[in-house]
Structure formats: C-alpha cells, structure tokens
Amino acid sequence: MRSLLFVPGDRPERFAKARAAGASAVVVDLEDAVAPAGKDAARDAVRQALSAEAPVVLRINAAGTPWFEADLALAAEAGVRAVMVPKAEDAATLARVAAAGARVLLPLVETAAGLAGLAAVAAAPRVERLVFGTIDLQADLGLRDATEDDLLPWRLQLVLASRLAGIGAPIDGVCTAIDDAPRLAADVARARRLGFAGKLCIHPRQVAAVEAGFAPSAAELDWARRVLAAAEASGGAAVAVDGKMVDRPVLLRAQAILQEAGH
C-alpha cells in the first residue's frame, strides 16, 4: 500500500476513474467527503457500486456519529478489502468493526486520545497498518500553522507502535498541495525516511509521485544486490561494501529493499 487514493462516496461516477489512476488502493470515503445530509444516499450508492472484482478500502464514519452503525453493514461486503476507521482511539471500537465482518482494519490515528491509546489500537485484531490523520490531529491538538516537521514526534510514535505490534509500516497523511510537485516529493521522502510505507492521496495527480517515491530506487536495488552477493561470497567472514562493513542490520535492510521491489 504505497498510495491510497480518496474518492467521495457520493460520487460513484468517479470510482472507475479512481481505480484507473494506478493507486495501490482506492479509499471510498463516507466520512469527510460527504455532507451530513447526503450520508445515507452515499452509503446506498457505495453499496450498489461495490465489486468483488475491484475491492476498495471503505472509510466509514466515526463511532458515536449517527451513521456509524449503518456504515458497518457494508464492512463484510466482498467489494470491501479493508475498512478505514476514523478517530480510532481504543480496541473496543475496532472490535465492533471487526465483528461486523471487516477483513482488514486501517485505524486512522488523528486525535490526542488516539495517540494515548496507540499501543492498544495497533495491537487490535485485524489491524494491518496504522494511518496518520495529520489534519484532524492538528485541529484536535490546537496546533496553529504547524509544519510537517512539527508533527515529527507523533509520526515516529506511529512507526514505533507498528513495529512493536508486529504490523505493517504505517501510512502517512495527505499532502493538501495538489499542484505542488516539489512539496509532495519532499513529504514522500520524509515519510519514507521515517519508516512509513505509503501515503494518502487526495487527487489522482498525486498517485504516480507517491508510488515512485516509496518504491526502491535503481541505486538502492543495486546496493542491496551487491550487499547480499558480497555476504554470500564471504562465507560468513567480515566483508565491506562501498567501504562500509556489512553486519546483520545492513543485511536486513538489503533484504527489505529487495522485498519492497518484489524481488
């Protein structure tokens, strides 16, 4: 899951275009993208459009809202590959979503309470990855004009909690600058350096850059192959590649790079 592209749940005519954008997953959004008056109609439209041949991630409305229970009725549909749970703050809410038939859970950590309950959220059954809700978190914490670097402490908390829970690396939040390619590239590079596996996208134009930014580069693949080849040829003896010693952490990094690329 390198790129997860949002599409409004009340715009079913856009679903096919979103699928064709090349994202790792399409996130059909019943929450922020749909006005309160249109929630029920959007849910019905999504139910009609779901396809087992092209399953999507479904972002439901948060627990405690008038639409949460009705949204759960879609969780077990064959066309839903995962459920994105907004305002994820405790394991009990995630258990309710799982009990409704969700195969995979993607909790959105976007509140102070979510950060406080991070360990329990990450360890809940069927959680595959955490997702960082940067915009909502800033609002919840009362941050004013925060930069992406200001969010560094909480980003690292998601990475650490994911590792401790033994789940996949987390997904970073959106870049709101749709037409600012340098900013998007910088956001992707930062997220990858910090240990994130992918990023939320709000426009199809962002998908290609996100996919490319999280994929191992040709130079990384070449380095990883040379590290593994040198280690194998050494027969267990100490060996250096590019003037640096190859120890177990270096080997694991090389193996991870090749795994990322599907090698």
Descriptive report:
By secondary structure, the chain is an alpha/beta fold. The protein is 43% helix and 14% strand. It is built from 12 helices and 10 strands. Helix 1 links the parallel strand 1 (3-8) and strand 2 (25-29). Helix 9 (181-193) runs parallel beside helix 10. 37% of the residues are buried. Residues 2-204 form the HpcH/HpaI aldolase/citrate lyase domain. This is Citrate lyase, beta chain. Its cofactor is Mg(2+). It comes from Piscinibacter sakaiensis.
CATH level 1 name of the largest domain: Alpha Beta
Could you give a short account of the major beta sheet?
8 strands, parallel
Number of domains: 2
Order of helices and strands: EHEHEHEHEHHEHHEHEHHEEH
Brief characterization of the structure:
It is an enzyme of class 4 (lyase). It contains twelve helices and ten strands.
